[in-house]
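This is your field. Please look over both lines of this record.
***
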Amino acid sequence: MQLGLLVVVVFLSSMDPTGSSKVVKGKRQRRISTELSQGCARGCDLCSEFNGCLRCSPKLFILLERNDIRQIGICLPSCPLGYFGLRNTDMNKCIKCKIENCESCFSRNFCTKCKEGLYLHKGRCYVTCPEGYAAANGTMECSSPAQCEMSEWGPWGPCSKKRKLCGFKKGNEDRTRRILQAPSGDVSLCPPTTEVRRCTVQKNQCPEGKRKKKEEQGKQDNGNRNRKDSKDTKSGTKKRKNKQRGATVPATPASPAQ
């Protein structure tokens, strides 16, 4: 009888530690879950003491901030500068922009606002607008392309060549227009104000050319006249000389001898 009681006591004592361990384990689990839920910031559904918020309310975004080797989560109604919000069914997240010098972005690789002093062009940030573009209406966004207000083209000018209007058959004619308004006052961004094209006219002699030719013709005529007069003078002189040579001198009769 005593042996049987001893067996029962041993059996019950062997069963107590197992039951007590289960109770302790259950209490530990309840304590851990209580630690995850208690002390969370407003808008955070699940948090931990080591990593901050782990899950935000459905309408909020979770932002992970690095603190040494840890990442601490916080819940925000909108993402801060340098981040963009990505919504999904699991959890809304704030993701950092990858564009250099970007203050806010639409996606990882498309900036919507650059840091102060920089120009925005096609989702990128620049110190100055690319060639052919200019900041529109005093903003820091480069317009595409640079818009200039130009006047209408004027009439075509006369056909000329080397600034002359005569003495040629083929030349050039041009027309001009004015810049009414330039973006940021930089006229170098505007299109050309002068247009040139080839032209063909009936060749005519320039007045100075006619006068020069007439003077040359007069000089040539005077030279011919002078040469003719000189020739006539020489011819008359030769004739007079020949006439003098042909004239006979009368002979003087000899005196009779005494």
Notes: Helices lie at 2-37, 207-246. The CA atoms of residues 208 and 214 lie 10 Å apart.
